[in-house]
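Appendix B. Chain record.
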Amino acid sequence: MIRKTVTIKDELFHNLNENHIIKQYQSFSELVSTALKLLIEKQKKEEYKKAIIEASKDKIYMEDMKNIENEFKYADNEIK
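Structure tokens predicted for this chain:
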């Protein structure tokens, strides 16, 4: 585990306190770690979204996706 000192603005800390967000965590370190994990997840989702948009502009990729969809259309309708 890495130890870092975090400095935040007074207003942000008071906002966290007033909204009882700090009380939801065992420690301020846990709060910061959770917030950073959420930030990483959000960034990964944004990167994935950008990649999908770029892929949708690629004619070869879209053709491959249509072929895969056609090959599995019967399997998608199977009843388990």
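Further analysis of this model is presented in Appendix C.
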